[in-house]
Design goal:
Shape: globular
Largest sheet: 2 strands, antiparallel
Distance between the termini: 26 Å
Radius of gyration: 23 Å
Helix content: over 70%
Structural class: mainly alpha
Order of helices and strands: EEHHHHHHHHHHHHHHHHHHHHH
Oligomer: single chain
Length: 533
């Protein structure tokens, strides 16, 4: 377990060139696997005689061709994950009209899934480390399939939110897949595979918005449109039983059940408290629930610090080398998820009745977002090259600066569609680099036997930021509406964009400060311009 006062300077980071050296067993991001087992690192299986990685049936091994096939299947899952995540935002106005949901309440359609992810990601990540990442990946895909079907058939907001909660494990797919990739591949191919998975997620998000918008345009039926992602999610479940091998190296220990229960209760109280504040203002009920959420959060933190095998490595959050980047992950969640629902409702608003907006359909909303999504796909695939030239920390700082500039531009210029498109392209440039850089850095810094839970911590912080942003944005939009109307004022949207710009600018400044405050050897490595691996 990493502690603040015991750095590990010899561990390579994403900015370090990897020296050529023979690997007696299998080279990982942390160097050769040791011969002696530890509590969390049993001795890995050795290659089969003959110098290949093929073995008898049932051994769980795969050859080079099979590994490529496995990565292809994982890419399919990430395409589906991105499709589900990108396809819901353009449909939010239509879902609201179908079920009679207020614009401000539509933000909870995104926030419910993110809060569920904040709990399910570390739980599923740890279960994957303990019992096999393939097995837990199948559980996650099954939950997502049931959730998307409920979303498509939901008769009211309550059932809709339940379906979105069941899709929370979507965020756990990538950490589980990264853990599988690092378990089966050497460092260089593993990095390439991770880049493909991140790129597939971004591409799926792009396709999800466009195709769901097109299907709705053709059918004019939001429920039929929502059945499309449900069919895709259901198809992934049997595919997961094909050629994907199980993890070869499992951790020892057990799931931190008290930590999981306390974290779930904290998230539930947080959601309930923000919702009460949104409906009734900062009254006694909302303050009590938010206060209890803070109290339970403190208890959960204390429990995690005293647990030998915690659900979330809280000490990692306090490590001065990585803590700023976890804060940046939180900020990324705020700007990435927090603006989706407000952007969609602003574009769909009828200017004749609200005085703002463009009255766009779901397809038109997705087409407005298409250039930014395409830009994010390209920059995500080029992250290794960009960071290889500048260093990962400067690349992250630059990406957040672009995101801040995008939201600031939107707050000032939002009277024409082309202005919003141009601003979102700026955001796409930054979002792609940030999406590609952060998980790679965190994965390579982790103990290989705990990759799932460590990468899940990054995703957990990111999704928590998005969930918190959803509640805050909903409260801002609700507070601006007139007592006799559910329609937010135009100034509320400007406030939302300015908040996102401020958060992104703070994250950019934080990465630069963290670089200056890094230990001498770490700072020295950050200046290395040699492409990693």
């Amino acid at each position: 377990m990493t502690t603040p006062d015991r750095p590990t300077p010899d561990r390579p980071t994403a900015d370090d060139p990897v020296p050529d050296r023979p690997a007696p067993d299998r080279l990982t991001a942390d160097g050769p696997v040791p011969d002696r087992p530890t509590a969390d690192r049993p001795v890995p299986d050795r290659p089969a005689p003959g110098g290949t990685d093929a073995a008898a049936p049932g051994s769980g091994r795969t050859g080079a061709g099979s590994v490529r096939a496995v990565v292809g299947l994982l890419v399919l899952f990430e395409l589906t994950s991105g499709f589900l995540q990108g396809g819901i935002a353009p449909l939010l106005p239509e879902i609201g009209r179908e079920l009679g949901i207020r614009d401000a309440d539509l933000t909870w359609v995104l926030s419910a899934q993110l809060l569920a992810a904040a709990v399910s990601v570390p739980v599923l990540g740890r279960l994957g480390d303990l019992h096999g990442h393939r097995r837990v990946l199948r559980w996650a895909l099954a939950s997502v399939a049931v959730g998307t079907l409920l979303v498509a058939l939901a008769p009211n907001l309550e059932v809709l939110l339940l379906g979105r909660v069941l899709t929370g494990p979507l965020a756990a797919l990538l950490p589980l897949e990264i853990a599988l990739v690092r378990d089966r591949l050497p460092l260089g191919p593993a990095r390439s595979a991770i880049a493909r998975l991140v790129g597939a997620l971004a591409l799926g998000t792009l396709l999800g918005g466009v195709l769901t918008g097109a299907v709705h345009e053709l059918t004019d039926d939001v429920r039929l449109t929502l059945l499309l992602p449900a069919v895709l999610a259901a198809a992934c479940v049997p595919v997961s039983f094909l050629a994907i091998p199980e993890s070869r190296r499992l951790a020892r220990g057990r799931l931190d059940l008290p930590g999981a229960v306390l974290l779930s209760a904290t998230m539930l109280l947080l959601l309930s408290g923000v919702s009460a504040a949104q409906d009734d203002g900062p009254g006694l009920s909302a303050l009590v629930q938010l206060g209890l959420a803070l109290l339970l959060g403190a208890v959960w933190t204390r429990v995690e610090l005293r647990t030998a095998e915690p659900l979330v490595d809280v000490r990692a959050l306090a490590d001065r080398r990585v803590a700023p980047f976890f804060l940046c992950a939180f900020a990324f969640g705020v700007v990435y998820f927090g603006g989706q629902a407000p952007d969609a409702t602003f574009l769909a608003a009828d200017p004749a009745t609200t005085g703002y907006g463009f009255g766009l359909s779901a397809l038109s909303i997705s087409l407005v977002a298409l250039p930014a999504a395409a830009t994010a796909v390209v920059t995500a695939s080029l992250t290794a090259r960009i960071a290889g030239r500048t260093g990962y920390v400067p690349a992250l700082a630059g990406s957040f600066a672009l995101i801040a500039a995008s939201f600031l531009t939107t707050a000032v210029l939002h009277t024409a569609v082309w202005q919003l498109v141009a601003a979102k392209i700026l955001a796409g440039l930054g979002l792609g680099v940030a999406l590609g850089a952060m998980p790679t850095v965190i994965a390579e810094a982790s103990d290989p036997s705990r990759t799932g839970v460590t990468t899940a911590l990054y995703n957990n912080v990111k999704t928590l930021g998005g969930a918190m942003a959803g509640g805050v944005m909903a409260a801002v939009l609700t507070a601006s509406a007139a007592p006799t109307s559910d329609t937010p004022d135009a100034s509320a949207y400007v406030t939302v964009w300015l908040l996102c710009a401020g958060v992104a600018a703070a994250a950019a400044a934080l990465t630069l400060v963290a670089r200056r405050a890094a230990p001498p050897r770490t700072a020295e490595r950050d200046t290395d311009r040699t492409p990693a691996g």
